[in-house]
Design a protein that fits this description.
The protein is of the alpha/beta class. Helix content is 38%, strand content 20%. It contains 12 helices and 12 strands. The chain binds adenosine monophosphate and manganese (II) ion (MN) (2 copies).
């Protein structure tokens, strides 16, 4: 796929990522927009996202992001609209902008979006991140420290700092090239990935303290309800990282973390080791993601959700002979 060719006659270009944007979503969208702005200074390039965490404010272009609410933004038709790190149905209120655009492009690495939802699709589930895919599509002589820092952020976040199995030699080659542009990658990793506010750490502590081991310790589950979130004054973005921490528990093949988004409705995050395909489970409940990291939204109490999920986790563990 050739982005330059697709965009060459466009006057207005839009870019959107998934709801509850994570590091890869923000990094890939901003990296792509910085590239397009550099390639075509005369064109209008706009990024639409739900409000991302301020930890990403160090990425160039962060302040220019159009923050999505429930309403579709009042925007004239785009000539080209990109959905990055998701299919069009997870663009939130930007989905309408995608639908109305003359040309649509989908860049994604979610196995649950294997067919793509654009007129042009660049979908590789084996890629570590959407940022790695944007890196592949960017012309090398256009790269600079700002674009590199954006894409590096995305790769770092979706690979858990190059730890997860989605990390490939290609990922490391991309990262090696990116750091050669000279930005402070240690600071970037520290400040966007590891650093937590005091209250974020407290909530993580609560979730760990109240976690439960089920299936003979092969699965660990925990949750945070609305009352607790209100008490600590935290939002979903503050709970990022809890599920990965749970997954570090020795013996746990699978980790489930959920937080209440409204009464009796939970945003569920699933992580797994080698034996459970969590994308398959999340898809059963209308969500999706990757084999080792996936998510969905489910209704009921914490126990209802766990009961519904555990049947499928247990089934897969048994099949794998665990
Ligand atoms: P999370 O647990 O929200 O961090 O999500 C883990 C992975 O699954 C990320 O790559 C998400 O983009 C993806 N994911 C989460 N929820 C969904 C969903 N409802 N549909 C498709 N992919 C999802
Ligand atoms: Mn993402
Ligand atoms: Mn991603």
């Amino acid at each position: 796929m050739n982005i330059k060719e697709i965009c060459k006659d466009a006057e207005r270009i839009g870019i959107g990522g998934h709801i509850r944007p994570d590091g890869d979503c923000v990094g890939s969208c901003l990296g792509l927009s910085l590239y397009l702005k550099k390639l075509f200074p005369a064109k209008e390039v706009k990024v639409f996202l739900e409000k991302p965490s301020d930890i990403f404010s160090c990425i160039k272009g962060f302040r220019d992001i159009v923050i999505l609410g429930k309403e579709v933004p009042k925007e004239a038709e785009f000539d080209v609209f990109f959905a990055v790190d998701c299919g069009k149905e997870r663009l939130g209120s930007a989905e309408r902008l995608f639908d109305k655009a003359k040309t649509t492009v989908n860049i994604d690495h979610h196995v649950s979006n294997a067919d793509g939802t654009g007129m042009y699709n660049y979908i590789y589930p084996e890629a570590s991140s959407a940022s790695e895919l944007v890196y592949e599509l960017v012309e090398e002589d256009m790269l600079d420290a700002d674009i590199a820092a954006a894409l590096y952020t995305g790769i770092v976040h979706d690979t858990g700092v190059f730890r997860y199995s989605c990390t490939s030699p290609k990922t490391m080659q991309a990262a090696a090239k990116l750091i050669s542009y000279g930005f402070d990658f240690s600071k970037l990793i520290e400040e966007t990935f590891y650093e937590k506010t005091y209250v974020q750490n407290q909530v993580m502590g609560r979730a760990l303290l109240e976690s439960m081991l089920i299936m003979d310790g092969k699965c660990i589950v925990s949750y945070i309800n609305r009352k607790t979130m209100e008490f600590y004054q935290v939002t979903g973005a503050d709970l990022e990282g809890i599920v990965s921490q749970l997954k570090l528990t020795k013996g746990a093949e699978c980790a489930v973390f959920m937080y209440e988004i409204r009464t009796m409705q939970y945003k569920v995050s699933l992580r797994s080791g080698e034996k459970v395909n969590v994308a398959k489970i999340a898809e059963l409940f209308g969500g999706g993601g990757h084999v080792r990291a996936a998510g969905c939204t489910m209704n009921g109490t914490f126990y209802d959700v766990i009961n519904n999920l555990s049947v499928h986790i247990e089934e897969q563990l048994e099949e794998a002979g665990a």
